[in-house]
User: Fold these one by one.
Assistant:
Number 1:
Amino acid sequence: MTLTRESMVLIVICAADLLSTLFLLQSQGAREGNPLMAFYLRYGIGTFVMMKLTLMVLPVFIAEWSKQYRPRFVRLMLRTAIITYVGTYLLLFLTVNLGMGVAASAPDKHASPAVYTASTNLP
């Protein structure tokens, strides 16, 4: 069984996500933005990696097996998965790790000026 180009791209994206997440967690103090994967991360790096790989390999395997029955549909779904994965990754990365979310950038109207000023001086 040969992998479709879309499956290979999805595997590369997932592997890059895994490696960058591990790097950022250990060296930059980043947080896991995916609540499901954050749950597994609490059980250690090994569990996190095992679940990440399982959640990568299993859907690709099912898609590759299914392409013999509905190749156009599978290709469309893999392309949709690629776009969704990259978009979600970028959104979560910017929101969680760089604080670019609406709640992080908007000052609290009900906070006293002293509390707001003190919180802006944090590293």
Number 2:
Amino acid sequence: MKSKNTFSIKELTKICYRIAKEKGWWDKKRNDAEVIALMHSELSEALEALREHKPKEEVAEELADCCIRIFDYCGRKRIDLEKAILEKIERNKKRPYRHGNKRY
């Protein structure tokens, strides 16, 4: 059953970018490396929450922050993330088990 708050990745990208723009995060020029570093910092915060045995809701919040930063960036750069994800899933389906004997 679909809830009333279900959005496509395309919609989430537009929403996240709009909010970030409204809140002034794009008023000054930001380089791609800075924005990607911010995505990485949210993953580091999620890892820290795991290491500190914080509740899963806190880990989820940090992961959500990372997704929001990714969606925002894709909105700014007009990257069709939904299409890229779906294409990558199809490629991954065709890969060998563990990508040919990778350990991790």
Number 3:
Amino acid sequence: MRILLMGPPGAGKGTQAVVVAEILSIAHISTGDIFRANVAGATPLGLEAKRFMDSGEYVPDSVTNAMVRDRLSHPDATDGFLLDGYPRTLAQVHELEGMLRSTGTSIDKVVEITIDTDEVITRLVKRAEEQGRSDDTEDVIRRRQEVYAEQTAPLISEYEALGILVRVDGMGSVAEVTARVLSALGV
């Protein structure tokens, strides 16, 4: 199964992605993790990505696409994956379609986790305090929400038109949301 998990930053995508990918025995591919690994390793792509991440902007498509293309080529993604944090723009949607078409595959389902913006901000501020993440100041969090609304929300319409979008309420315990996601996937 090839799944995209979407929703605003802080909606619980990362938490759900880990749990759902484990239950389905597919690779969890998080662009946030890919970015942080490249930043920590001070790779050229990582240094470029860091400039954008620190200001709350999206990393340019060229950098993001290169990182994702590389990750999808790993053997653990051959039989299925759950993408968390990608695609975020219409250009990335088309790039991903091209990547998958070249392997004779496509996305099976897109799960949109919905949540209240104020709840998202509260979650991210708490996470920043717990994890010491410099990229999670309140101003940066608010900017990420704006960028999500401007650039990512239109993707929802694209996937809805393809008939592969399902919406899941992200409010509640991790177990409650996981049950909703699995039900939406028909598992």
